Amino acid sequence: MTTTDSRRLGAPLPTELMDAGERLSGDELRSLQLTRLQNTLRHAYNNVPFYREAFDRRGISPQDCHSLSDLAKFPTTDKQDLRDNYPFGMFAVPREQVARIHASSGTTGKPTVVGYTKNDLDTWADLIGRSIRASGGRPGQLMHNAYGYGLFTGGLGVHAGAEKCGYTVVPISGGMTARQVQLIQDFQPDIITCTPTYLLTIIDEFEHQGINPASTSLKTAICGAEPWTDGMRHELESKLDLDAVDIYGLSEVMGPGVANECVETKDGPHIWEDHFYPEILDPFTGEPLPDGEEGELVFTSLTKEALPIIRYRTHDLARLLPGTARPQFRRMSRITGRTDDLVIIRGVNVFPTQIEEVLFTKPGLSPHFHLVLTRPGRMDELSIEVEARPDSASSGWEQLAAETVVAIKERVGVTATVRIVPPETLERSVGKLKRIIDRRKDVR
Ligand code: DLL
Q1: Probe target for ligand 1 pocket from 113, 248, 338, with the most ligand atoms within 8 Å of CB
Q2: CA nearest neighbour of 134 among 10, 318, 275
Q3: Which residue, 27, 30, 200, 399, has most beta carbons within 10 Å?
Q4: Between the CA of residue 30 and those of 22, 238, 333, what are the distances in Å?
């Protein structure tokens, strides 16, 4: 972890550039949230058979919501519920009123389909505008948008918001990295948007071409769609000489822009609570946990028309923290990981971000790594394949690997094998990186 002192922080957003939601007082926010919550519960109950049945089964109706804490009495929703109602069964408006559809890539089973009315697209665009300003961007700037375009919400979501809010957008999408470098050189963008691991790939490409990545015009990187650590932030900021901030979101709740970090504090994303109500639940019992405790992040949409979502279980682990740069909105700690990415090695829980934090403390190691899971006997084993930095002599790798094994044992509590591989040997990310390679099923 970098300390506050070593962080570079940007200038705060002047009040006159804030939108109405950002100017709400805490009391005004809570009263708006309650009205919007009551409307959303009614809208979902009246128009989506799935919610009507789920509420009825629990013997609860929208009229029973008198305060924000009453939300805890309502049932939660999971990805499986969207799959069971594939493709359009969760929509609360006739399909003709749905202006756009996105879907999450279904690695297992059917994809999750989400929809937006024209008003939903407008709200989303405004929240992207708010997120870019919070990141340090200002209307009039040029944005290089390297999130993937298509059914994924990253590319088009960020694009439409930036365009509506006064930015010039270059819709490059992900991949063809040499071309990305050329266009950054030629167009001189102020902002880049992509996953943190794809930004590493872009940095590599600059270095291949003999260009110092710190010499570009870029001032702001808005990175998200996958977990990343302060060590990674430091790597991106120092290599590119810019501010790197965290944008969070998920398709089922909207897409990018559910929460965004403020550049003046860089202390975890502020949740745009005028549109999304967050809760933290114990991932095993489903019971609500108080602010400050780590658990599963759950969201209820407050303004969505096409796909109102009630108590959606994200499977992302985080804590809710008090607001800082926008005091009325709570922050979320940066995501530790997804419950699905949890690896259990001899009873010890491990997330890739914990390993990432340790690797960044070793100057000879690059940020390119993955975790390999095997099961040679009855027990799962973890090995970490990590690239050396180009300036790290191979004669020192054995020693470096041994030191890293000790550091992982001390800081994460797990015994892992560390294999240092030469620079440029591991596969590079073009979007969301899959950190875990599961070879357990290969073993018979
Ligand atoms: O990844 C939306 C997005 C696009 C967010 C671009 C930010 C930037 P999905 O494909 O539905 O949507 O994946 C959502 O990605 O539940 C988290 O597990 C993970 N995720 C998203 N943002 C972050 C972040 C988009 N900032 C899933 N930090 C979420 C950690 C993130 N994980």
Answers
A1: 248
A2: 10
A3: 200
A4: 13, 39, 21
Single-letter residue type at 212: N
338 close to ligand 1 (CB < 6 Angstrom): yes
Reference 338, options 295, 285, 279, 280; nearest CA is: 295
**What one-character DSSP code corresponds to residue 77?**
B
**Cis bond leading into 75, ω under 30°?**
no
Asked whether 93 lines ligand 1 (CB < 6 A), one says no
In this structure, the residue with its CA closest to atom 30 of ligand 1 is 227
Spatial separation of the C-alpha atoms in residues 367 and 200, rounded to whole Å: 8
For residue 369, the cross-strand partners are 386
Give the atom of ligand 1 at the shortest distance from the alpha carbon of 152: 10
For residues 281 and 422, what is the distance between their CA atoms, to the nearest angstrom? 42
Q: Give the span between the Cα atoms of 359 and 232, in whole angstroms.
A: 10
Contact 154, 128 (CB under 8 A): no
User: Residue for token digits 């359009």?
Assistant: 88
Q: How many CB atoms lie within 10 A of CB 56?
A: 11
Answer for the pair 405, 417: CB distance below 8 angstroms, yes or no: yes
227 lines ligand 1 (CB under 6 A): yes
Report how far residue 379's alpha carbon sits from residue 30's, in angstroms, rounded to the nearest whole number: 49
The b-or-e profile of 384-413 (16+ CB within 10 A means b, else e) is: bbbbbeeebeeeebeebbeebeebbeeebe
Helix (H, G, I), strand (E, B) or coil at 25: coil
Residue from 226, 298, 433 to probe ligand 1 pocket by mutation (most atoms less than 8 Å from CB): 226
Residue 342 phi, psi (nearest 5): -70, 130
Q: Between β-strands 191-194 and 142-145, what pairing exists: parallel, antiparallel or unpaired?
A: parallel
- For the chain of 444 residues, list the mean pLDDT of each consecutive stretch of 10: 62 95 98 98 98 98 98 97 96 98 78 97 98 98 98 98 98 98 98 98 97 98 97 98 98 98 98 98 96 98 98 97 98 93 92 96 97 93 97 97 98 97 95 92 57
